[in-house]
Amino acid sequence: MSVVRFEHVAKSLPYGFWLRRKQVLLDVSLTVERGEVYGFLGPNGSGKTTSLKCLLGLLRPDAGTVEIFGRPGNDPDARRKLGYLPEHPYFYPHLTGRELVDYFGRLFDLPSDVRRRRTDELIELVGMADKAAQPIKQYSKGMMQRIGMAQALINDPDLVILDEPMSGLDPIGRREVKDIILDLKARGTTVLFSSHILADAEALCDRVGLLFEGKIVRESGVDELLEGRVQYWDATCDDLQAEQVPGYRCRATQGDRLYFRITDADDLDRWIDIVRQAGGRVVQVSPHRHTLEDFFIGTIRGDRRLADGTGSEGPA
Ligand SMILES: Nc1ncnc2c1ncn2[C@@H]1O[C@H](COP(=O)(O)OP(=O)(O)OP(=O)(O)O)[C@@H](O)[C@H]1O
Ligand SMILES: [Mg+2]
Q: 88: Cβ below 6 Å to ligand 1?
């Protein structure tokens, strides 16, 4: 059984006057399996938050099925096993960070000793130990995000749903959230998170789904997507003029240093031979691998070659 299942979910939301509605989700189908870290990617306004709200039972889909552990997301048994970090958490501003985490522990009926221990552990984990006694209204965006993360983990959930967990965080905070996600994964917890920060998603996810204009346009394993394929090499040589490297277009020169971009491995071998034979020196050959960002931008722009990493963005 999948931990999360969306099947052909559609949802419209009211906007403007006269009960007009906007079709926000057209067709969202995806599954998240046990123990997986799943990256839910998509540009602004594509419907990620709306989908997650449907999953949690905060919005009711117009059509299709959404399930967590085979049950609706608002089912009390499903809820006990999940943690949720909203995109814009609203927490009672007069509470301190510690009181907030404790409050969520009470909602899950944790015994007081367990609640206290977990609150301490989680506050430490998210790097908020020295700020936990401050009221939340004094928190910065990143501090809210950290305390929100602690709140989402208070019930030791089997499934964690995080809507933009890295947003508003500095590089240290991002690294810490990544480490928390990797730690959850090591313990077998299933994680579904939405993100725009593709390098982070690339480092964390087993699979990604790409949502665009309310539809899942691609879903794939990250390994399968990237496969370590080299798209092109940036190659640099010294002590030559461009005419001494015939058949290759020089992209830039700097004194007697020449810059090339080469898309084919055989062409690269020949380029190295030509440079050496002409008395030049190879300074650098650096491969550019296909990234999640290429996949994301390529898919959205409809550029299959960029999306699949089968072509180069630059001329040879
Ligand atoms: N409560 C609402 N009422 C009406 N329209 C809404 C509401 N919430 C979201 N929308 C619209 O639904 C679409 C999808 O919004 P959603 O917040 O799900 O996108 P998102 O993918 O999470 O975007 P972001 O990356 O900016 O967080 C947008 O066009 C948005 O304007
Ligand atoms: Mg959102």
A: no
CATH of the domain at 237: 3.30.1490
Same domain, 60 and 130: yes
> Strand, coil or helix: what is 29?
strand
DSSP H helices in 187-303 = 198-204, 222-226, 265-277, 292-301
In the Cβ-directed half-sphere of 302, how many Cα atoms lie within 13 Å?
Answer: 0
pLDDT band at 15 (very low <50, low <70, confident <90, very high): confident
Q: How much is the average pLDDT of 125-141?
A: 92
47 alpha carbon to ligand 1 midpoint, in Å?
Answer: 6
Q: Same domain for 104 and 213?
A: yes
21 CB under 6 A from ligand 1? Answer: no
Mean residue pLDDT of the chain comes to 90
* Same-domain check for residues 152 and 238: no
252 and 108 inside one domain: no
Ligand closest to Cα of 21 equals 1
- Total domains in the chain come to 2
Overall average pLDDT of the 229-242 stretch = 91
Q: Which two tokens stand for residue 18?
A: 């006269």
Assess whether the C-beta atom of 50 lies below 6 angstroms from ligand 1.
Answer: yes
The proportion of the chain whose per-residue pLDDT surpasses 70, expressed as a percent, equals 97
Mutate to test the pocket of ligand 1, among 9, 13, 211 (most ligand atoms within 8 A of CB): 13
